[in-house]
Each structure stands twice: as structure tokens, then as C-alpha cells.
Amino acid sequence: MPDVAKLRRMVAFLREEIPAEDVSKNPVVNHPHNTARMVPERLPAARIKELSQLQPEKAVVATLAEWAGIAGAIALCTYFWHPILYVLAVMFIGARQHALLILGHDASHFRTLKTRWQNDLFANIFMMWPTFASVEGFRKFHGTHHQYTNLPDDGNRHIWYTHDAAGELAPDWQFPKTRLGLALVLLRRAAFLTGLFWIVRGLVGSTLIPSPGWMRAARFSFYAVTIAALTYFSLWSAFLLYWIVPFCTWHLAAQYMRLICEHSAVESDEEEYSITRSTIPTWLERIFILPCNVGYHLEHHWYPSVPFYRLPELHQALMERQGFREHAVIRHSVLTSLSECVRRQSSPGTQLAQESAR
User: Fold this and answer.
1) Residue 73 in contact with residue 89, Cβ under 8 Å?
2) Distance of CA 214 to the CA centre of its chain
3) Where are the transmembrane segments (predicted)?
4) 28 and 41 in contact (C-beta within 8 Å)?
5) pLDDT at 167
6) Are residues 301 and 352 in contact, defined by beta-carbon separation less than 8 angstroms?
């Protein structure tokens, strides 16, 4: 039997209005997703305001580039069909779906277009609705994740189920793990069922989250037109092969690898630096796992007003600060970050030496 009381609480939470106030006690630049925690490295307000200036054409071009990549992969795989090429296409398209959601994440911070309704509509049509989400829905959870990172009101506890009812880390989110344990978590999440759950959750949850009536009508029209087009042109099998399969496999694997890199087993001698890890990916990891500068995560948490295309500049500005250089957890590949989430097993010789020293 389902937990009716828990279900009612979740529905009530989804229907609440999305908080819009700045909870920071002394913000450098006002933003509704500023953290309630302390920011140790406070850059000059003029510098942050300059980095926060929107250049909408960059966001639009980045979005179109992801869709061009998806179209190219589908065309290439269809024309030169081969099972190995299909596997590569699934990985590439799943990575592009992940990139679209990362771009939608920027829109949830109001960082895509300058006018809010245009920002949200553009993000929904080209980033979020195709990936079974909504910018309003993501903002609902992600705003509180920024405001209360690693605290009881952190939105990640709702959307990623990182903690149990007692506030303890759920088994999947307890790190470090063995290499096998980490691999099993990623394989289980990439084994289709989690992806199907995400699709249903996104489609149903988005109907409950407050949004303007015209946006609800636009959302209904988007899915109605999509269904009609897939039916009229007999594209349902292609939709399954080139959209659902990538979404439920590699896209989910990339999502979980990213989140593990960001918030698991982060160790720093200063508490406010241990809220998250920044991972600067290799070029191959940038294509398949960490697109759109999303790896600059500590920087983003401290200054959510800075759009994704200015995060490398923000990183360089912070690297000029001694405190950031000494205490920030910055790694230069996804593999390095994931390795810090793996339990180190002592060799028999090391174990013997440890026993002798006692």
C-alpha cells in the first residue's frame, strides 16, 4: 500500500509557490538563489555584476548546437547503421540530453534570456519539455538546493532522494564506496527503470507545480503537437531508439556521475569549501559527462547569478584568492573526482604494518 500521508505531503509541497526572496544575509549581488551559508571569498560587487551580465545569443547558440549534434548523430547512425555506431549514438545523444538539462538549469536561475517569461518559455520548449521536465519544476527544487546546500531544507533531498526520513544519507548516497559499489549504483540507474520513473515523475509533477495558465496551455500544445507529429510521420520507433533509450541509459549515468562528483565525499579543511567539489573535465569528459561548464560547481554555488559561459572567468578570478587556492576542492577530471568517492583498500602488507604499529 502506498504511504498516503507522504503522498499528500509531496503534492502539497509541489503546489506551494516557489520562494523568490534572497535569503543571503549579505549578498554581493542580489539573486533569489543566493546561499544562506557563508561565502568565504567575496569578490568585488562590480566584478560579479559584470560577470552576471547576460549575453542571450550565447545561450541560444549553445542550445541550437546541442540540437544540431542530436540531429547529426541520428542522421549518421540511420544512414550508416551498425550496432557499435548505435551504441555511440546513444551515448552522444544521452550526453546532449544531459546538456539540454544543464542549459535548462541555467534558465532556472533566470540566466538565459533577460525577460522572465521569454526565459522560461524558451527553456521549456528547447530544453526542458523535450526532456520531460519543466523550468518551473526544476526551479522548485534547485532554488532551495542553492539556498540551503547540505542543510535539511536542501531541495536535492526531495528530487534526488539523497536522505531518508531521519535525515541520514540514503544507501546510494553514502560515500566512499568500493569500486564495485560505485559501478553498481551507476549501472542500476542507467538500466532503464530509473529513466522511466524520471519521465513519469517529470510529466506528472510538472502539472502540479504553480505556473501561469498560458504556460500550461503551451505545455499541453507542445506535447500534443509532438505526439501528432510522431504518429503522422510514423516515427514512434525512431523516437524510442533515439530519444527514450538514450534518456533512460547514458543520460542517467551522466547525471549521476555529475552529482556524485559535485557533492559526494568532498573533504576540505574549511567547512564552506566542502559543500561541493569543482571538476574541470577533459575534452572527452566535456562531451559525454560534464558539458556547458557545469563542473565549475563551487563557483556556481557561491555566485548563481553568473551564467554558464562566464564561469571559467569566475573561476580564474577566485583562483587569484589565496583562500580559494588553498581550500577549494578542484579536480581536473571526472575520473579523479570519482576516485575520491571510492574506498581505498589497504594491501595485506599495509594492513600488517598498521597492526604492528598498534
Assistant:
1) yes
2) 27
3) 59-81, 180-200, 220-245
4) no
5) 86
6) no
User: Cell numbers 534570456 label which residue?
Assistant: 113
Asked whether the beta carbons of 109 and 136 are under 8 A apart, the reply is no
Query: Could you give the C-alpha distances from 31 to 35, 52, 177, 299, 314, in angstroms and in order?
Result: 9, 10, 36, 15, 16
Q: Domain residues of the chain, as ranges?
A: 51-345
For 49-102, the pLDDT digits (tens) are 999 999 999 999 999 999 999 999 999 999 999 999 999 999 999 999 999 999
Q: Cell 501528432 maps to which residue? A: 228
| Residue 201, Ramachandran bin (φ over 0: left; ψ between -120 and 50: alpha; else beta) | alpha
Our CA angle for 29, 210, 116, nearest 5°, is 40
Q: What is the residue whose three cell numbers read 555529475?
A: 258
Closest by Cα among 146, 145, 177, 180 to 163:
145
Torsion, CA 119, CA 125, CA 131, CA 133, rounded to 10: 60
Average the pLDDT over 95-118 and give the result.
Answer: 98
What does the alpha-carbon distance between residue 217 and residue 206 come to, in Å, rounded to a whole number?
Answer: 12
Is residue 334 within 8 Å of residue 279, measured between CB atoms?
yes
Q: Rounded to whole angstroms, what are the CA distances from 69 to 62, 97, 227?
A: 11, 10, 23
- CA nearest neighbour of 167 among 153, 181, 186, 178: 153
- Residue 9 carries which side chain, given as an amino acid letter? R
Cα dihedral 211, 11, 137, 225, rounded to 10, equals -70
Instruction: Give the span between the Cα atoms of 151 and 223, in whole angstroms.
Output: 36
- What cell numbers appear for 86 in the block? 548505435
Looking at residue 255, the DSSP 8-state letter turns out to be H
pLDDT in tens, 278-295: 999 999 999 999 999 999
Please tell me what DSSP assigns to residue 316.
H
Which sign, positive or negative, has the C-alpha torsion 225, 227, 228, 230? Answer: positive
Q: Which three cell numbers stand for residue 306?
A: 553568473
- Per-residue pLDDT for 8 more than 60? yes
How far, in Å, CA of 255 to CA of 291, rounded? 11
Asked whether residue 231 carries a pLDDT value surpassing 70, the answer given is: yes
Distance, CA of 36 to CA of 22 (rounded, Å):
9
